[in-house]
Amino acid sequence: MDYEVPKEFGFTEDKIFGWVMENEEFCLYVLRIILPFLEIKEVVEFNKQDSLGNDQREAKDIRLDIKVVDKDGRIFDIEMQTSPSKYLGRRLRYYQSTIDGAKVLKPGHDYSELPDTFIIFLCSFDPSEAFSKVNNRAVHFFKTIDTKDHALELKGYY
Q1: What's a Pfam family this protein contains (predicted)?
Q2: What is the C-alpha separation between 22 and 68, in angstroms, rounded?
Protein backbone atom coordinates (compact mmCIF):
# COMPACT_ATOMS: atom_id res chain seq x y z
CA MET A 1 0.00 0.00 0.00
CA ASP A 2 1.44 3.34 -1.05
CA TYR A 3 0.95 6.22 1.31
CA GLU A 4 1.55 9.75 0.13
CA VAL A 5 2.49 12.29 2.78
CA PRO A 6 0.43 15.45 2.32
CA LYS A 7 2.52 18.39 1.10
CA GLU A 8 1.71 20.44 4.20
CA PHE A 9 3.64 17.91 6.31
CA GLY A 10 6.86 18.12 4.31
CA PHE A 11 10.18 19.54 5.49
CA THR A 12 9.59 22.71 3.46
CA GLU A 13 6.41 23.54 5.39
CA ASP A 14 7.20 26.38 7.80
CA LYS A 15 6.13 24.67 11.04
CA ILE A 16 7.83 21.38 10.22
CA PHE A 17 11.03 23.14 9.12
CA GLY A 18 11.09 25.11 12.39
CA TRP A 19 10.29 22.03 14.46
CA VAL A 20 13.12 20.01 12.88
CA MET A 21 15.66 22.84 12.92
CA GLU A 22 14.99 23.78 16.56
CA ASN A 23 16.97 20.67 17.48
CA GLU A 24 20.23 22.54 18.07
CA GLU A 25 22.41 19.49 17.39
CA PHE A 26 20.74 18.92 14.04
CA CYS A 27 20.89 22.62 13.20
CA LEU A 28 24.62 22.67 14.01
CA TYR A 29 25.06 19.57 11.84
CA VAL A 30 23.32 21.32 8.91
CA LEU A 31 25.53 24.40 9.31
CA ARG A 32 28.66 22.26 9.42
CA ILE A 33 27.62 20.44 6.24
CA ILE A 34 26.88 23.67 4.35
CA LEU A 35 29.83 25.69 5.68
CA PRO A 36 32.53 23.16 6.65
CA PHE A 37 35.38 25.68 6.24
CA LEU A 38 34.03 27.76 9.16
CA GLU A 39 34.59 24.91 11.65
CA ILE A 40 31.58 25.93 13.76
CA LYS A 41 32.12 24.58 17.26
CA GLU A 42 29.15 25.60 19.36
CA VAL A 43 25.80 27.40 19.21
CA VAL A 44 25.33 30.01 21.94
CA GLU A 45 22.06 31.54 20.76
CA PHE A 46 19.16 30.02 18.86
CA ASN A 47 15.94 31.74 17.79
CA LYS A 48 13.07 30.50 15.70
CA GLN A 49 10.88 33.00 13.80
CA ASP A 50 12.96 35.95 15.03
CA SER A 51 11.39 39.25 13.92
CA LEU A 52 13.65 42.15 13.03
CA GLY A 53 12.07 45.52 12.48
CA ASN A 54 13.20 48.76 11.05
CA ASP A 55 13.06 52.08 12.90
CA GLN A 56 11.34 53.63 9.92
CA ARG A 57 7.64 53.10 10.43
CA GLU A 58 6.90 52.31 6.79
CA ALA A 59 9.81 49.88 6.38
CA LYS A 60 9.14 46.20 5.81
CA ASP A 61 10.07 43.94 8.73
CA ILE A 62 11.65 40.53 8.25
CA ARG A 63 11.18 37.30 10.12
CA LEU A 64 14.18 34.99 10.24
CA ASP A 65 13.13 31.33 10.05
CA ILE A 66 16.12 30.17 12.08
CA LYS A 67 18.72 32.50 13.60
CA VAL A 68 21.82 31.00 15.14
CA VAL A 69 24.79 32.71 16.79
CA ASP A 70 27.93 30.66 17.32
CA LYS A 71 30.55 31.05 20.06
CA ASP A 72 32.60 33.31 17.76
CA GLY A 73 29.65 35.74 17.48
CA ARG A 74 28.89 34.89 13.84
CA ILE A 75 25.23 35.11 12.85
CA PHE A 76 23.61 32.45 10.67
CA ASP A 77 20.17 32.95 9.17
CA ILE A 78 18.69 29.75 7.72
CA GLU A 79 15.68 30.35 5.48
CA MET A 80 13.40 27.89 3.71
CA GLN A 81 12.40 29.35 0.33
CA THR A 82 9.45 27.67 -1.41
CA SER A 83 8.34 30.34 -3.88
CA PRO A 84 10.53 30.92 -6.94
CA SER A 85 11.40 34.55 -7.54
CA LYS A 86 13.79 36.30 -9.85
CA TYR A 87 14.27 38.79 -6.99
CA LEU A 88 15.78 36.26 -4.59
CA GLY A 89 19.09 38.16 -4.63
CA ARG A 90 17.33 41.35 -3.59
CA ARG A 91 15.56 39.52 -0.79
CA LEU A 92 18.92 38.25 0.41
CA ARG A 93 20.33 41.78 0.24
CA TYR A 94 17.38 43.17 2.25
CA TYR A 95 17.78 40.49 4.91
CA GLN A 96 21.51 41.27 5.14
CA SER A 97 20.92 45.00 5.55
CA THR A 98 18.20 44.46 8.17
CA ILE A 99 20.37 42.05 10.18
CA ASP A 100 23.26 44.54 10.03
CA GLY A 101 20.89 47.37 10.98
CA ALA A 102 19.87 45.52 14.14
CA LYS A 103 23.44 45.95 15.43
CA VAL A 104 23.73 49.64 16.28
CA LEU A 105 27.26 51.01 16.24
CA LYS A 106 27.76 53.91 18.62
CA PRO A 107 29.83 56.93 17.54
CA GLY A 108 33.54 56.19 17.75
CA HIS A 109 33.07 52.44 17.35
CA ASP A 110 34.60 50.57 14.44
CA TYR A 111 32.84 48.66 11.66
CA SER A 112 34.92 45.64 12.64
CA GLU A 113 32.44 45.25 15.51
CA LEU A 114 29.76 44.13 13.06
CA PRO A 115 29.50 40.35 13.27
CA ASP A 116 30.15 38.09 10.29
CA THR A 117 26.76 37.12 8.89
CA PHE A 118 25.80 34.16 6.72
CA ILE A 119 22.38 33.96 5.10
CA ILE A 120 21.46 30.50 3.89
CA PHE A 121 18.50 30.04 1.56
CA LEU A 122 17.40 26.41 1.32
CA CYS A 123 15.32 26.36 -1.86
CA SER A 124 12.70 23.79 -2.81
CA PHE A 125 13.12 24.98 -6.41
CA ASP A 126 15.99 25.71 -8.76
CA PRO A 127 17.09 29.24 -7.79
CA SER A 128 19.24 29.67 -10.89
CA GLU A 129 16.84 32.12 -12.56
CA ALA A 130 17.69 34.59 -9.81
CA PHE A 131 21.43 34.30 -10.47
CA SER A 132 23.71 34.36 -13.48
CA LYS A 133 24.51 30.84 -14.60
CA VAL A 134 28.18 29.98 -14.43
CA ASN A 135 27.96 26.28 -13.74
CA ASN A 136 25.57 23.85 -12.15
CA ARG A 137 26.31 23.93 -8.42
CA ALA A 138 24.11 23.39 -5.40
CA VAL A 139 25.94 25.92 -3.21
CA HIS A 140 26.79 29.46 -4.24
CA PHE A 141 28.97 31.97 -2.41
CA PHE A 142 28.62 35.66 -3.22
CA LYS A 143 31.03 38.56 -2.87
CA THR A 144 30.79 42.25 -3.59
CA ILE A 145 33.20 42.82 -6.46
CA ASP A 146 34.03 45.50 -9.03
CA THR A 147 32.06 44.39 -12.08
CA LYS A 148 34.18 46.30 -14.60
CA ASP A 149 37.59 44.71 -14.16
CA HIS A 150 37.02 42.34 -11.21
CA ALA A 151 40.20 43.68 -9.60
CA LEU A 152 38.63 45.03 -6.39
CA GLU A 153 36.73 42.91 -3.93
CA LEU A 154 34.83 44.40 -0.99
CA LYS A 155 35.30 41.97 1.88
CA GLY A 156 32.36 41.62 4.23
CA TYR A 157 34.06 39.17 6.59
CA TYR A 158 37.59 38.18 7.49
Answers
A1: PDDEXK_2
A2: 10
Domain containing 28 equals: 7-154
135 vs 28, 58, 132, 138, 140, CA distance in Å?
Answer: 28, 39, 9, 10, 10
Examine residue 136 and state whether it is found in any structural domain, yes or no: yes
Per-residue pLDDT of the chain (158 residues; tens, 9 = 90+): 566 656 566 788 778 888 888 889 999 999 999 999 999 999 998 988 777 766 666 777 778 889 999 999 999 999 998 888 878 888 888 888 888 877 777 888 888 888 888 999 888 887 777 665 555 555 666 666 666 665 656 555 54
Question: Is residue 1 situated within a structural domain?
Answer: no
pTM higher than 0.70, yes or no? yes
Please state whether beta strands 117-123 and 153-154 pair in parallel, antiparallel, or not at all (unpaired).
unpaired
